[in-house]
Write a structure and sequence with these properties.
globular; mainly alpha; single chain; about 60% helix
């Protein structure tokens, strides 16, 4: 509340001093609009994060994701006030209201992270400060305001659904669970079908340079090629990363093995950002996610693939929120970037298995034994009394 008050009443005071042709009173309303948009986006985003907690827990176990959340210990349903994202857990003191058993802090953390990521993407797109080739920025001058239109809302909804899906598959893989077949089909459908129906959602073409003689909004064939190139790029990089993330993967000789299953999950993880931001920027997203994964791995002691899985949506958020600035920097792989820039980032992505891998296991153990040990450690609960079911739905 203090931060909101400082922004609404303090920033207009500074702006009225810097821009003397604006009066203090007329600058308060635009700042109130900013706060309203921010709070609404964070509320929606954290609610999505609350739902993703339910998805990550129930879907791999074959349970329905419908219905109210409940305590798995005493089976009591959570009250509506307890379902308030982030603050509901804080109000309960991290314990079930009925049986008083502890609720994992992971759930409000996920809600806060997802809410922050969706808020960042929403603000950057509604104020037109992120997407390249999307007109002038609305974030200029003291009276800046969001641009609300059908096209803007549709594009933002598409990106929010894709980002939420990336978090869903990342959370499930973070728990060392196989991605459910239904979720795989859903993730590929919600990212590919909208672009095939409305090619303008792709933002950039599938080519290295912008095709000045064609309109992306009418290029149905280009949309098909864009999706195919993105999926091929995701499969290529997944296969190269498998040397460190799933070394026992062998689609030819062992198509049903655990290592191959991890490889297929990695392809799905990379396909979502590849389709959304294009194959051109995928190498940079992979490198960024790998750097974030090293931090996640140190904090959580998770295996390399599981750490990368939860880092991919974070890197995707950075790409979407700062896309225009990265696009115009000249050092980020994107459309109209130098081919050498794309090749340099691709080469950097190929080096990821050398510094982000699970190869630290004893050399005498086979790949299958190493993977089994990793899976066992990752799935064992650190606190047997901890309530694992999400507090919010």
């Amino acid at each position: 509340m203090v931060a909101i008050a400082a922004y609404v009443f303090g920033l207009p005071l500074l702006q009225s001093v810097w821009h003397r042709h604006y009066h203090y009173g007329e600058l308060i309303l635009p700042r109130l609009i900013d706060v309203t948009v921010f709070l609404w986006l964070f509320w929606v985003g954290s609610s999505v994060g609350s739902f993703l907690n339910v998805v990550a827990w129930r879907m791999p176990r074959g349970e329905s994701i419908n219905g109210r959340s409940y305590c798995p210990r005493c089976q009591s349903r959570l009250a509506a006030r307890d379902n308030f994202p982030v603050f509901g857990w804080l109000a309960l003191g991290g314990r079930c209201r009925t049986c008083r058993l502890p609720i994992s802090a992971r759930y409000p953390i996920v809600e806060a992270i997802v809410g922050t990521c969706i808020t960042a993407v929403g603000l950057s797109e509604l104020y037109r400060i992120s997407l390249p080739l999307n007109g002038t920025s609305a974030f200029g001058g003291p009276v800046w305001a969001p641009i609300i239109s059908r096209d803007e809302i549709g594009l933002l909804l598409f990106h929010v659904v894709a980002l939420s899906t990336s978090f869903a598959v990342g959370l499930i893989r973070f728990d060392n669970q196989r991605l459910p077949y239904r979720l795989i089909c859903f993730s590929l459908a919600v990212t590919s079908i909208p672009i095939l129906l409305i090619p303008s959602l792709a933002i950039v073409s599938w080519q290295v340079s912008w095709p000045m003689d064609s309109r992306l909004a009418d290029d149905q064939l280009g949309a098909i090629v864009r999706v195919l190139c993105s999926m091929v790029g995701a499969a290529f990089f997944a296969r190269t990363l498998s040397r460190g993330l799933c070394p026992s993967a062998d689609p030819k000789l062992d198509p049903l093995g655990s290592g191959t299953a991890r490889l297929l999950d990695l392809v799905v993880l990379l396909s979502i950002p590849a389709i959304i931001v294009g194959w051109q920027s995928l190498p940079a997203v992979i490198v960024t996610a790998s750097l974030l994964a090293t931090l996640v791995r140190r904090m959580t002691s998770r295996p390399a693939l599981e750490s990368l899985a939860i880092a991919i949506p974070l890197a995707m958020t950075i790409q979407l929120a700062a896309w225009r600035q990265l696009h115009h920097s000249g050092y980020w792989p994107s459309i109209d970037a130098s081919p050498w820039t794309i090749l340099a980032w691709s080469a950097a992505a190929l080096t990821v298995p050398f510094w982000l891998s699970d190869s630290a296991a004893p050399e005498s153990a086979s790949d299958e034994e190493v993977n089994d040990d990793i899976d066992k450690v990752a799935t064992e609960p650190s606190n047997p009394t901890q309530v694992d079911d999400p507090p919010n739905a």
